[in-house]
Amino acid sequence: xxxxxxYGIDIAGVHRExxxxxxxxxxxxxxxNILGDTELVQVCAKELAHKLAGTDYDVLVTAESKSIPxxxxxxxxxxxxxxILRKSYKPxxxxxxxxxxxxxxxxxxxxxxxDEKDKALLAGRRVVIxxxxxxxxxxxxxxxxxxxxxxxxVAAEAAIFTEGERAKWAEIIALGHxxxxxx
Length: 183
Fold this sequence. Notes:
With 183 residues, the chain is α/β, with parallel strands linked by helices. Helices cover 25% and strands 39% of the residues. A five-stranded parallel sheet has the order 5-4-8-9-10, with helices on both faces. Strands 1-2-3-11 form a four-stranded antiparallel sheet. The chain has a two-stranded antiparallel sheet with strand order 6-7.
């Protein structure tokens, strides 16, 4: 029998029930998957754009894949361009920069790649790092490392939700916080 436990969230009048997923024995997290959820992506982008209004930045940056729709919608809302850090290298990416990270949802090391074409867009610029959920901070750290390699200044870090230890994420611009569930 599959566990169908959920955790309810509300953002700007939009309600979703997030499925709880066991990431290790005795520990569950609420899974936010915005892929295909245009209504939720749009309200999140609008709310984050409002929270970022006082931030001086040039470019939005995210890692593939679940937060790509958010970066796109936020780009439309703010008029700022965005760049995607990829999780696999393709030959057309040329002289790509890279940094390694460990994802809580996959449990495996992953490498983030910045396509050579995006180096000029980001080098020396003020960026806002965007993610859907910041949980362990490993993807965030990988994105920071790539930005450091191209001398980009991280003006802010934003997410739909932070998760886990709330105090650890005090500097993140977020729409809410997700608890972790232990049994």
